[in-house]
Amino acid sequence: MKALTWQGKRRVSVETVPDPVLREPTDAIIEVTSTAICGSDLHLYEVLGPYMAKGDIIGHEPMGRVVEAGPGSGLAVGDRVVIPFNIACGRCWMCERGLHSQCETTQVREQGTGARLFGYSALYGSVPGGQAEFLRVPHADFGAIRVGDELPDHRYLFLSDVLPTAWQAVKYADVTEGDTLAVLGLGPIGQMSARIGRHLGARVLAVDPVPERRAMAARHGIEVFDYGDPAIEAIRDATGGRGPDAVVDAVGMEAHGSPVAKLAHQAVGLLPDAAGRAMMEHAGVDRLAALHTAIDLVRRGGTISLSGVYGGAASPMPMLTLFDKQIQVRMGQCNVKAWIDDLLPLVEDAADPLGVDDLVTHRLPLDEAPRAYEMFQKKKDGCVKVVLDPKATLGT
């Protein structure tokens, strides 16, 4: 089969690799019909390179049709399914409490990390990912989300990551009707966090430096601001001088405005794997501009919800400010299956209350994935969300 593989820093390529096979009774094999590029895939493209091996298959936002079903999978050939990015058993102590991203059956104990993820480096189990023609799905009896046949892929695809991650971000922000919510970053997670916040009755103010991203959010009733100090003051002014009740940081370690950490990112990507891993695990390598902005902006007694990914184990935190302002901070990998019952009716609603029809900016064949990664990383051509079609050919 064809699959997108990691080849080095800022280098991915489509290669022919062995087809996946069933290994456990609860496995399934799907033929991938749509698979998206996630903002966190760019971390593999850049700073998490020391945890990647040449030839690793990447991608963690797939859906498709079951072509082989293990006897314990509970699936049948032909079922249309969305696959969550985290792999969970559904039966362990953590899963029973809705903490599927901490599944004790699939935890990567040798790395000290949580549940295995599709296509996301040795940190999370080196599981082959979904930017491919076919995908083996472990624990498909719990993980696979059956969906109907009537709606196009893009209505369901984002149940794999974007929608539940954004929903959890807003829920962790403790937003209720009438609250004010600021969203930092209007990539896919930020876009959907802002729309979900508004759907739940909050006034949403969002910040992003890219005009096309601001324009997309504005179409959905979000008040938008360019990145920089004037935006922060304008949001303060709009919230009675206190700041918003909650802030969602949907940027993470890719934030602008952190020149020292930017150099650390570049250094990690250039070091040999062992030295690069050591720097990630023992140095402050995160670009914390967005997090510091969130801490500065949120009102006293407010809540910060982190959905952007941070990777440095020793990145500094302004603990005095967090304590003095009595700020609650919540974060973590999304527990995808915990939110599906809330989200499935919304994506199937003909009124499209979350605007899922207005998120994908580029649909490309899998063969064009290397170009898509470069375009997404450099925010060229108004790129907000790319969906790859493994069955399409160049020029279609």
From TrEMBL:
Domain of life: Bacteria
Ranges where the Alcohol dehydrogenase-like N-terminal domain occurs: 25-141
Residue ranges annotated for the Alcohol dehydrogenase-like C-terminal domain, each copy included: 188-254
Pfam families the UniProt entry points to: ADH_N, ADH_zinc_N
Ranges in a coiled coil: none
Named cofactor requirement(s): Zn(2+)
Database matches in SUPFAM superfamilies: GroES-like, NAD(P)-binding Rossmann-fold domains
Entry keywords, A to Z: Metal-binding, Oxidoreductase, Zinc
A GO term for molecular function: oxidoreductase activity
Family statement: Belongs to the zinc-containing alcohol dehydrogenase family.
PANTHER family, alphabetized: DEHYDROGENASE, ZINC-CONTAINING, PUTATIVE (AFU_ORTHOLOGUE AFUA_2G02810)-RELATED (PTHR42813:SF2), ZINC-TYPE ALCOHOL DEHYDROGENASE-LIKE (PTHR42813)
Protein name, per record: Threonine dehydrogenase
Organism phylogeny: Bacteria, Bacillati, Actinomycetota, Actinomycetes, Propionibacteriales
